[in-house]
Amino acid sequence: MSRPTIADLAKAANVGISTVDRVLNGRDPVRHQTAERVLQAAQEIGFHGVTAIRRRIENDKPIIKFGFLLKQSHRKLYQMWAEVLSKAVENFPDAHGRAVVRFMDDLEPAKAAEAIFALSREVDVIGTITSDHPQVNHAIDGLAAEGIPVFTMISDLTGAGRAGYVGNDCVKKGRTAAWFIDNVNPQPGKVGVFVGSHRYLAQELCEMGFRSHFRESAREFQMMETLGTLEEPDIAYDLTRNILASEDNWVGLYVAGGGITGVMRALREDGGPAARRLVVVAHELTNETRTGLAEGLIKAVLSHPPKLLAETLVTAMAKAVAADRSSYLSQHVLPFEIYTAANI
Predict the structure, then answer these.
(1) pTM as predicted
(2) What is the C-alpha to C-alpha distance for residues 177 and 192, in angstroms, rounded to an integer?
(3) Which of 10-24, 168-182, 224-238 shows the lowest mean pLDDT across its residues?
(4) 64-167+306-334 in CATH: which number?
């Protein structure tokens, strides 16, 4: 039986003979997806040049430096995101990727804008979690003009310059948190929201969805004023202790930003009927929130799917590097995962 020829391979891959020739000899660029299809066909028909095709595809992969600007380095949540994003870059099949991860311990908008600009000098594309502020949007608009795409993850921005967003539908997320509090409580009462900062668009939209549910609810819950934790557990701890001491019939708390470990500490220390009655809904499944669910301090956690988010973001970032930036905008709204004590 004769060995498969280039013509046989072209037919099997549904491409032209000239395309196969380019894949084999590297005379001209070939789209990565097309080269992969030729490789797969070569393996299927037993083409003798499989090793050469695989080597050519590997050599032709672009080198991309993926930059990620995350929040506080001391928080385990962002350490987790750094690890998951780095792994997604390492496993990304269509490029030789290098992950450059930086953290912002100072969350002031001016510092965030400086950090975004500084990272842009090291990388080809950026993914970031940051506040929605004119200084931040101005910095991202400037990088867009330079051809450096910036993606938002988890919390979007209102500026036109960002290349895209990867995260949840935050209004739906807030309404889901309210649904839990509404349906778990036997009697209506006072409900509140903690946000890390009113400048995070995701948290603002979560709060909007939360309030929207209770405006429509047939039961007479009373919304308390939304309070900010500045993403700090100690502030969340103090807020929780003060409300437990001063508000009767407090039945629901939605922690839409940072600070859940402070809330948990306050509830553990109090241990009274008010603390036991409180239905708490938080974000992101971590070791700490798992513990809170297991102890009954938290009733539900609404979480981004880390691996899916990281892989989706890295793929979108790579496409943006290769695309015409002037016409590129990528939006990826991912489903959120729901955890209770029964399924952790």
Answers:
(1) 0.84
(2) 11
(3) 10-24
(4) 3.40.50.2300
